[in-house]
Design brief:
It comes from Halorubrum lacusprofundi (strain ATCC 49239 / DSM 5036 / JCM 8891 / ACAM 34). Its EC number is 3.1.3.5. With about 270 residues, the chain is of the alpha/beta class. The strands form two sheets. Strands 3-4-2-1-5-6-7-11-8 form a nine-stranded mixed beta sheet, sandwiched between helices. Strand 3 and strand 4 form a beta hairpin. Helix 1 packs across helix 5 and helix 2 packs parallel to helix 4. It is globular and about 70 Å long. The mean pLDDT is about 95.
Amino acid sequence: MSVERVLLTNDDGIDAVGLRALYDGLSADYDVVTVAPTGDRSSAGRALSDGVDIADHELGYAVDGTPVDCVVAGLDALVPDADVVVAGCNKGANLGAYTLGRSGTVSAAVEAAFFDVPAVATSMYVPGGEDWWKRKLEPAEFANATRATRYLVAEATASGAFDRADYLNVNAPIANPDGERDTPAPMRVTAPSTWYGMEAAHDGNGRVSFSDPIWGKMNEGDVPDSVGTDRRAVIDGEVSVSPLSVPHAAEPDAGLDELAAAYGRVTENVR
């Protein structure tokens, strides 16, 4: 398929530096229309509103809603002729199977897949301590993410990759601030890591706090993942590309047929 129009969204908000970096990069080749949240809606997952307010923006439309709101409004009302949906570039990586459902960036791509529209979710790993998210980024630092996204929008659609995958989850390492002299990171096809280590701590006074120890391991380069996983690729300085399908696929061999058949016999005398 050929791509002419791109619907661009994110979960960091329409004025985020990462979104602007992708907009500028993709606009060189495509008609890009942004439909993105008015502010930060990170970790919104696939939350959907009853309705949303929209306003014109220099890049397209600002939506007072979630990333999924943006995709539904975009593909069914505002930009129905979009050939591809691009979500990002997210400030912070979306790595590992356990992050996919909670990520607003990835959820936007998932929603596009239900519209049968190819989608690319792009995120960038930002190294640092616990306050890495406070770091102010320059557009040039998104160069690896921008290059990879431009390449995949053009080549993955042309090659028929989306006949086999519903969307691509892309995670790129941060680039040098001087993007013009930065060597492009290599690309690796990956699968989401299955490692899970979320922790909860109860303070005894009515509050439970959560932490994800993988971020510290990533800073140290000592992640529990082998080559071929998304997290390992990013730590190794590679662009990770995971070809994925929409969730909740039925598993016909789960061994439940006999249980379902027996259910009526077990409950027939229960009132």
